[in-house]
Structures are given as structure tokens and as C-alpha cells.
């Protein structure tokens, strides 16, 4: 694949993105052209593109199994820089069996697993909403979305949530709010840690009846971390909306998801659900 890609875009989308979302890496260093040293001994060069991918995987902290064909120059390329101990093999016809045996061992000792993923997901939280009183005599209902860490041993660090788009399904009008961090439930920090196989909730929106003059007015709002009202997303009229939220982390690939928001004039008329 690497040899076939001739553009930077192709490398990024077809190779680097696959590495970024990978749970584990199996690196196989095959023999290439022969090398001759000054003392007359010979060895072979290893796989050039694969070494570059191994370096990227090392930077991304992806656990790896490393195999090297007999005759490849030892400690060459990234293997020397990483001080990695390669598993040698000599018969290419038996390589798949050797790799399968080592992966099976990793699965048995539970250092590798197929039950979890190096991925974050977004889904409607349970319970969906929580009532709170921002002031005496007032009731505000908060609707939550959960961000789940699907990895069994790796924490997602410095996670932040953004609202990328609001689609009014009645008018088909699409708006892109200003980029601003949404508030996580229970904390004022813009970035939080989500532990292995756990989740954190954020405030997707809130609904409240507010007294304006002598009239009670229903209001939908968003909890964002800003000191300017220009950065607060706005939905002023009842209707159906599609909200696109995304979560970013320094350790995991970014993830986006769409949610359906129905807005009425009462607490009972508000609902939020995952979009199909």
C-alpha cells in the first residue's frame, strides 16, 4: 500500500489514519536487496516503508509484535533506535503460523484483547436528564451525552467536546457555531481524563422556564466555557434539530456523532436521541 501511494494525502488517509486507529501492530521485516560490508560479509536491507510505520506506531504508543526475517541487517533502521527485540523467522511459508501463535499467547495472557477498542464513542447518557436548581424557585433540566472509552487499559487524556453543527430539520438550515469547549458534568475543566473502560458525561443542553417581565418564557441553552455570549450556541424556536458533537483527545482519534433534539414549550416536550 505504501509503495502504491504517491501523494501526501494518500499516505495520511490510507496508512497513517489506519495506524492512528489501530489497537495493536504486527511488524514484519522482510529481506530486500543485499548489502556488502567492508569485511566481505553480506546481509540484507529490511523493509523501508514498514520501518517508517513502526516509528509512527511507537510515537502513538501502539503495542507491537516485531518479526524479522533471518539475514536482515541487525539493529538497522527503527529497530536499532528503539532497542526492540525482534522475533526471528526463516521460513516465509510458516510465518503466518508463527505470527498466529504469538498473537494467541498475547490473548491468553490478556495483554492483547479483541473485546475492546482504541476508540471513543458518544451516546445518550443514562439517565438522559438531571434536574437542578440554579436559583431558589427555579428548575433547570440538564440533558447529558456520555463519552465512552472502549479501551481496556488506556486512559483518554485531555478530552474536550465541541458542537460542530446544528441542522434545523424544519428549514434545512445548517449553522456552524463558534468553536468552544462544552462543559463536562461535575467539573469546570475544559479537558478531562476518561479512564479505561469508563465514561464521562457532558452537558449537551438544558431547558428552563424563565420569567421575562410578567411572562414565563421557555428557554433552551448550552453550557459552554466562555466569557462571551457570542460563543454560546443558540436555538430560539421549537422544532427538530440535528446536533453534531465531536470529542478530541491527545491519546485517541477524534470521534463525531449526530443526535436528534426535539424542542417544545414544556419540559416534557424536550427529547434527545442518537441519530440513525
Q: Layout of helices and strands, plus pairs?
A:
Layout: H1 8-20, E1 25-29, E2 34-36, E3 42-44, H2 48-59, E4 64-69, H3 78-82, E5 87-89, H4 95-108, E6 120-132, E7 140-149, E8 156-168, E9 173-175, E10 192-194, E11 199-212, E12 215-221, E13 239-248, E14 255-263, E15 271-274
Parallel strand pairs: 1-4, 4-5
Antiparallel strand pairs: 2-3, 6-7, 7-11, 8-9, 8-10, 8-13, 11-12, 13-14, 14-15
Structure description:
The chain contains 4 helices and 15 strands. It folds into 2 domains: 8-108, no CATH class; 120-274, Immunoglobulin-like, CATH 2.60.40.10. The two termini are 33 Å apart. The chain has 276 residues and is an alpha+beta fold.
* Total beta-strand segments: 15
CATH top level label of the largest domain: Mainly Beta
- Give the N-terminus to C-terminus distance in angstroms: 33 Å
What's the mean pLDDT score? 86
Given helix and strand content, the structural type is alpha+beta
CATH architecture of the largest domain: Sandwich
Cα-atom radius of gyration: 26 Å
Order of helices and strands: HEEEHEHEHEEEEEEEEEE
- Work out the helix count: 4
Provide the β-strand percentage band.
35-45%
Number of domains: 2
Task: Give the overall silhouette.
Answer: elongated
Q: Sketch the major β-sheet.
A: 6 strands, antiparallel
Helix content: 10-25%
Low-confidence stretches: none
Q: What's the name of the CATH homologous superfamily of the largest domain?
A: Immunoglobulins
- The CATH topology of the largest domain is given as Immunoglobulin-like
Amino acid at each position: 500500500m505504501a509503495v502504491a501511494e504517491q501523494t501526501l494525502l494518500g499516505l495520511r488517509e490510507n496508512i497513517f489514519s489506519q495506524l492512528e486507529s489501530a489497537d495493536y501492530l504486527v511488524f514484519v521485516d522482510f529481506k530486500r536487496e543485499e548489502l556488502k560490508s567492508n569485511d566481505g560479509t553480506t546481509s540484507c536491507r529490511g523493509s523501508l516503508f514498514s520501518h517508517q510505520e513502526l516509528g509512527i506506531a511507537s510515537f502513538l504508543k501502539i503495542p507491537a509484535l516485531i518479526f524479522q526475517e533471518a539475514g536482515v541487517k541487525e539493529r538497522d533502521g527503527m529497530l536499532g533506535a528503539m532497542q526492540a527485540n525482534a522475533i526471528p523467522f526463516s521460513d516465509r511459508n510458516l510465518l503466518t503460523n508463527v505470527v498466529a501463535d504469538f498473537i494467541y499467547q498475547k490473548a491468553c495472557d490478556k495483554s492483547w484483547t479483541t473485546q475492546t477498542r482504541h476508540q471513543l464513542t458518544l451516546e445518550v447518557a443514562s439517565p438522559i436528564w438531571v434536574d437542578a436548581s440554579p436559583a431558589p424557585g427555579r428548575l433547570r433540566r440538564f440533558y447529558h451525552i456520555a463519552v465512552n472509552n472502549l479501551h481496556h487499559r488506556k486512559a483518554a487524556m485531555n478530552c474536550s467536546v465541541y458542537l460542530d453543527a446544528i441542522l434545523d430539520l424544519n428549514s434545512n438550515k445548517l449553522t456552524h457555531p463558534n468553536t468552544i469547549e462544552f462543559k463536562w458534568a461535575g467539573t469546570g475543566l475544559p479537558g478531562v481524563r476518561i479512564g479505561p473502560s469508563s465514561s464521562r458525561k457532558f452537558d449537551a443542553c438544558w431547558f428552563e422556564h424563565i420569567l421575562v417581565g410578567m411572562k414565563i418564557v421557555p428557554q433552551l441553552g448550552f453550557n459552554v466555557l466562555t466569557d462571551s455570549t457570542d460563543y454560546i450556541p443558540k436555538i430560539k424556536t421549537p422544532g427538530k434539530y440535528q446536533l453534531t458533537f465531536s470529542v478530541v483527545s491527545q491519546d485517541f482519534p477524534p470521534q463525531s456523532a449526530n443526535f436528534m433534539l426535539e424542542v417544545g414549550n414544556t419540559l416534557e416536550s424536550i427529547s434527545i436521541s442518537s441519530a440513525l
